[in-house]
Amino acid sequence: xxxxxxxxxxxxxxxxxxxxxxxxxxxxxxxxxxxxxxxxxxxxxxxxxxxxxxxxxxxxxxxxxxxxxxxxxxxxxxxxxxxxxxxxxxxxxxxxxxxxxxxxxxxxxxxxxxxxxxxxxxxxxxxxxxxxxxxxxxxxxxxxxxxxxxxxxxxxxxxxxxxxxxxxxxxxxxxxxxxxxxxxxxxxxxxxx
Length: 193
Known about the structure:
Helix content: 25-40%
Number of helices: 6
Shape: globular
EC number: 2.3.1.257
Radius of gyration: 16 Å
Number of strands: 7
Distance between the termini: 23 Å
Order of helices and strands: HHEHHEEEHEHEE
Largest sheet: 7 strands, mixed
Protein name: N-alpha-acetyltransferase 40
GO cellular component, one term: cytoplasm
Subcellular location: Cytoplasm; Nucleus
Strand order of the largest sheet: 1-2-3-4-5-7-6
Structural class: alpha+beta
């Protein structure tokens, strides 16, 4: 599907523009956030992102229909359209969100491909801070909702997202009936009129 004018405009936004949105929103109050395009990541950032992703998700991927395919996942993570929100604690990556602006089913969305928090920093508010940042960014660029995919087996993530106001999206295979698919697509509407 061809991106809408809103999505095309959002894709063209610089990291500095998005960073300024967050600075004025209070979303950076808990911990400083860095916003970068995939192409702006340093090699040390990419390595830290990959290591955190692999530590948190490799076990889940190997038991799901997606399977563990590191080459394909690296391509997705570091695609030129990918954007990152990074949080460092004591000069080490503590959390990251990888997202993109996308048009799907005639709706403009912020699609959260990954939200990963290092196990030493879980339940410290970083996940909520990152989700608030996505909402601020989505609202500013007139996106309709934040969308994400979560494995059903990842019950702690499901609980987190549902507690943050996400529900099963109409595009999820599990929307109308129980399905044998091992993931859900969740979404949260944004304040766009």
